[in-house]
Automatic annotation (TrEMBL):
Gene3D superfamilies: 1.20.140.150. It comes from Maylandia zebra (zebra mbuna). One of its GO terms (molecular function) is structural molecule activity. Keywords: Cell junction, Cell membrane, Membrane, Tight junction, Transmembrane, Transmembrane helix. It is a multi-pass membrane protein. This is Claudin 34.
């Protein structure tokens, strides 16, 4: 009965970590969404001969704009070109984003897997309490690491937009040498939101402490121990 009560007590003390696991999963998904979005940088261009809308979207993997003049295969009014890691014109902040955002996803999925395994130990009682704590700390460290890795390209690209840095695209991209103006796109915002959720989740996991044993159980155990050490008890036991 004491072991069951202790396991139940540990389970009751893990509600925050259960919520943190949900935050970690949501943060990881937002990081994946940000990786695929093309709206990391939004370029405003004055020449609308080709870029009909006057807006071009620059992501980590593609550059796209609406056009009635040139259209990519499979689109009706959209022209897109891919940005490769090995292209000579690829700026370092975009190259870093392609590598580090993928790495962040890999570390994040490991953190979520560790969190699921740790919660399984808690709710099914298949391990020791010390194993739970180690699992939660590992989960928290992985979540914080994933957030730190994704923040590097996010902040780097944010800085590039704020300082109005341009990209020298080759002629087939049909973009001007520099935009008239540019602003931060939704891709960076989604990625930042994902990183914040991962940080919050990591902190909650890392700050987990094993719950103290209930006072009633401690007193009961102490009374049992004292009774077993009592010479009278031992004499009656031998009789």
């Amino acid at each position: 009965m004491g072991n069951f009560f202790t396991a139940q007590h540990v389970k009751n003390g893990c509600h925050a970590q259960f919520g943190a696991l949900g935050l970690a999963c949501l943060g990881w998904m937002l990081t994946g969404v940000a990786l695929g979005l093309i709206q990391w940088r939004v370029w405003q261009v004055s020449d609308r001969a080709v870029i009909t809308s006057g807006v071009a979207w620059v992501g980590l993997w593609r550059v796209c704009f609406a056009s009635h003049t040139v259209v990519s295969e499979g689109f009706k009014v959209m022209y897109c070109r891919y940005i490769m890691l090995t292209d000579s014109f690829t700026p370092p902040e975009i190259a870093a984003g392609q590598v580090l955002m993928l790495l962040s996803l890999l570390v994040g999925v490991c953190g979520n897997a560790s969190g699921v395994y740790s919660m399984r130990i808690v709710y099914f009682g298949i391990g020791k309490n010390s194993t739970v704590r180690r699992g939660f700390i590992l989960t928290g460290v992985l979540c914080l690491l994933a957030a730190a890795i994704s923040l590097v390209p996010l902040l780097w690209n944010l800085s590039a937009v704020v300082t109005n840095q341009t990209i020298e695209f080759p002629p087939e991209f049909k973009l001007p040498p520099a935009p008239e103006s540019q602003h931060v796109g939704g891709g960076i915002g989604v990625g930042m939101a994902g990183s914040v959720l991962m940080i919050v989740s990591g902190i909650i996991f890392c700050t987990y402490r094993l719950p103290k044993r209930p006072l009633r159980e401690q007193v009961h155990q102490e009374n049992d121990t004292r009774g077993e050490d009592n010479p009278t008890f031992e004499f009656q036991e031998h009789l």
